[in-house]
Amino acid sequence: MRGKFTPALAFKSLTPLYDRITELLGFGSPFRRKVLAMADIEDGERILDVGCGTGSLLLDVKRRYSKSEVVGIDPDQDVLTMARAKFEGSGIHAKLVQGFAQALPFPPCFFDLVMSTLIFHHLRTENKKQAIKEIYRVLREGGRFILADFGKPETLTMAVLLNLGSLFDGRANTKANLEGRLPAFLQEGGFQVTEVGSRYRGVQFLLGRKLSNSSHMRSASSLRPI
Asked: For the segment 39-52, what is each residue's pLDDT rounded down to a tens digit?
């Protein structure tokens, strides 16, 4: 498979420890519960997780909303192997696809909900924008996009921590996050954007809605970056 990507936790050697380390850092089950609370899922919806990693979020979705069709995509075959083993061990079905956020292999208007957690800070700015275009394309009219990722630091402590983290993820990749530009990128991509809930360990939760073309034209002039 062509294309470069940042492995889970930035280093391929840490991939087998991904679930344990993220739980220790506070981005395990408590974080996933917050994401699901923001998503406002209705059972039976078709849901895509962009950058699904080891599949923990999708597994939580399927356990709560058994009628929903869940799909995960990630460029890293190693984490997909871990995700498949996790689903098989749970006796729960999900479609897991190897691929990139900026080239989603799905038809237009296919999903009701797209989620992406802690992936966008790994992407260069041009790939962030292309991924947003792709997510908009695969969402049905009225569909939602939950983007959970690091935003502009609100405290000095968080600024120090996130800038240190950017040494591992790449300054160019994290620059737009730390400058607070994700909401503007979503708006440029056609979404109506709201920041929902309170921040969690530097992560902001953005809800993007795909409007109809006529609604988008009416409300575009009133949209402002968060």
From this structure: 999 999 999 999 99
Range list of β-strands (E), the chain: 46-50, 69-74, 95-98, 111-117, 139-150, 191-195, 203-210
**Radius of gyration, alpha carbons of the chain:** 17
Cα(77)–Cα(96) distance, integer angstroms: 10
Q: The whole model's pTM is what? A: 0.87
How many residues in the chain? 226
Point out which residues pair with 111 in neighbouring strands: 139
The contacts of residue 13 (CB under 8 Å, 6+ apart) are none
| Nearest by Cα to 170 from 130, 127, 121, 120 | 121
Count of Cβ atoms closer than 10 Å to residue 38 Cβ = 18
